[in-house]
């Protein structure tokens, strides 16, 4: 049985040592659910392997604190190992240290100054269709309602606000096949892609400042393919382009930009995910920022904060661990990050 | 047993009905060898499944007449079928009708006005390493010595002179990987290929006139590839380029042109084959041209005539059948082409 009152470092070790690769979260979800159900001040709901626990204290504000409980596959990096103030092991950084902070606060703050909703969700590391937070936002959106949300993704224990959106499109050029020995009888689709690449090469990234944070967009070919045979003029070339867009644009606006950018070419949208506004101007966010020291960076990569943003809830990333270590064999987290995150959140929530 | 004295249309049917997909030429080579060995005016040599038969009449000139005996794979197009003056079936066009003309002349012209060397060779339709004419040019180049050579590749029963050379190179651009969410930290190798494609798009083909024939060069991307993952800036892009060059250039000159054309980029030669000069100014070629009606076109595609050219023997393509039908399921040859080729060659060689 998990002891949620244990210090968050010990609790992190306990969580790391319960293997929970995506689609294998049954055990860890069962243990988390049982531990939370033992706490009389929380109302617990389970959906699949996602567990939600809420206070109902009639506070003026509600805050969601969320973390995913799955990890990427094992890579000879279990069990956990604590050495010189660094905790090593699969999931230590991404993001069981964040989960431990969250669970410890859930157990020990029975009278917080804000109502709290704790969400521990499954399947963040795999295809979107399995994502527990996505499922929850569709099946029980009221469980995610709040004035503010904190996603405990590793962010170096400082606030990374909002996130950029992402859009992937295929830009296609066409031609007409011909034998390479009589090339004037055909039209080469790869040659026709020169203008697509020239425009990409000349792309000038927008860097809008939002809530005082400078975001940085991107437009990049991530794949290119074309060709039929070594002696044939190709009749098709496809450039796959990934657009990362700042939170002041919707997916629709980003798509309109990309379509105009590649005007004259066939553009097909392959997938997309919306950005999330940092929302730092809102009172709940301001107070949170002050409580954790005021340091804040824009989040360039996409994270689940966008799901809260989509529900109208401002959200930030704030968790222990260096995000560049996520998914690495040697992932680890400084004990100091875990302790600092716990201390700052506790203080903000009116704890001792 | 093949009857080489039968009319060439009947002989074509016999040859077509002996299946001889590349690497499966044993039976057809055995039958051809046996039939030629029965002719006292010919000296026969066999190398692998390549058969050479020569006259030794002390004539002032020697002419090689050559044809390959293999076909591309079966495609539900055997046995042969003769219908309304058209002979259908695998190899009917490429190039057993030419072989039949060749074999019929070998059997029935015992006193030609030029010494003749007949070459029936294996494995033209597959990788160059197996090509019977290439092997012969290395093991027994004296068997290919001549003043003039005729390759009976389908050419619409008119002369297609010389052939263009071919060179394939990879043009490579490099960059530096980075996460697509922080693209300014990397260098996109696909974007870097825009200049490669821009140069290809602006390419202005040389069209040199040689022996009165206008050749037409080409420079074409035949493949392009690049990409690591949907969220990663690619660090490599490769454009495979096929250059077809006119017979006034050597492989070395063609390579120098391509390297200069892509100056500033990494260029790696993948394979090459030399062009063949038409050689129409030479007396033997002139007389041949007059004998077959004077109509002549440049050959744009690469053929084995280049192997003769490499040995200093001027060579032309001249055979029944439309070259555009080669390798097609529905390949066929007009009886009229077979008869005309046989008649014209016979007249040129002093036959009745």
Automatic annotation (TrEMBL), chains A, B:
Q: Which organism is it from?
A: Nocardioides aestuarii
| Gene3D superfamilies given in the database record | 3.30.70.360, Zn peptidases (3.40.630.10)
What's the protein name?
A: Succinyl-diaminopimelate desuccinylase
Broadest EC class assigned to this enzyme:
hydrolase
EC no. given is: 3.5.1.18
Q: Name one GO molecular function term.
A: succinyl-diaminopimelate desuccinylase activity
Sorted alphabetically, which PANTHER family does this protein's record hold?
A: ACETYLORNITHINE DEACETYLASE, N-ACETYL-L-CITRULLINE DEACETYLASE
What is the gene called? dapE
Q: Which InterPro entries match?
A: Bact_exopeptidase_dim_dom, Peptidase_M20, Peptidase_M20_dimer, Peptidase_M20A, Succinyl-DAP_deSuclase_DapE
């Amino acid at each position: 049985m998990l002891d949620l009152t244990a210090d968050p470092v010990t609790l992190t070790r306990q969580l790391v040592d319960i293997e929970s690769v995506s689609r294998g979260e049954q055990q860890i979800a069962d243990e988390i659910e049982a531990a939370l159900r033992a706490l009389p001040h929380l109302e617990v709901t389970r959906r699949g392997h996602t567990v939600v626990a809420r206070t109902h204290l009639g506070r003026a504000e509600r805050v969601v604190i969320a973390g995913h409980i799955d990890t990427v596959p094992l890579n000879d990096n279990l069990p956990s190992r604590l050495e010189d103030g660094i905790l090593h092991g699969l999931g230590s950084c991404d993001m069981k240290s964040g989960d431990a902070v969250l669970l410890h606060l859930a157990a020990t703050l029975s009278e917080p100054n804000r109502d709290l909703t704790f969400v521990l969700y499954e399947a963040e590391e795999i295809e979107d269709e399995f994502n527990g937070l996505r499922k929850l936002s569709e099946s029980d959106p009221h469980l995610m309602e709040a004035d503010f949300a904190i996603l405990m993704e590793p962010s170096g224990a400082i606030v990374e606000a909002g996130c950029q959106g992402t859009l992937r499109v295929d830009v296609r050029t066409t031609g007409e096949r011909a034998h390479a020995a009589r090339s004037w009888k055909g039209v080469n689709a790869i040659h026709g892609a020169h203008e697509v690449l020239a425009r990409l090469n000349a792309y000038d990234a927008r860097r809008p400042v939002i809530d005082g944070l400078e975001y940085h967009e991107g437009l990049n070919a991530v794949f290119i393919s074309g060709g039929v045979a070594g002696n044939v003029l190709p009749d098709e070339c496809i450039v796959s382009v990934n657009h990362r867009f700042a939170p002041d644009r919707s997916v629709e606006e980003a798509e309109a930009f990309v379509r105009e950018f590649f005007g004259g070419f066939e553009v097909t949208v392959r997938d997309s995910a919306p950005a999330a506004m940092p929302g730092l101007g809102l009172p709940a966010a301001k107070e949170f920022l002050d409580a954790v020291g005021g340091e804040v960076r824009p989040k360039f990569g996409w994270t689940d904060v966008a799901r809260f943003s989509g529900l109208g809830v401002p959200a930030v990333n704030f968790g222990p661990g260096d995000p560049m270590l996520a998914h690495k064999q040697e992932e680890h987290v400084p004990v100091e990050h875990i302790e600092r995150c716990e201390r700052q959140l506790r203080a903000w929530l009116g704890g001792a």
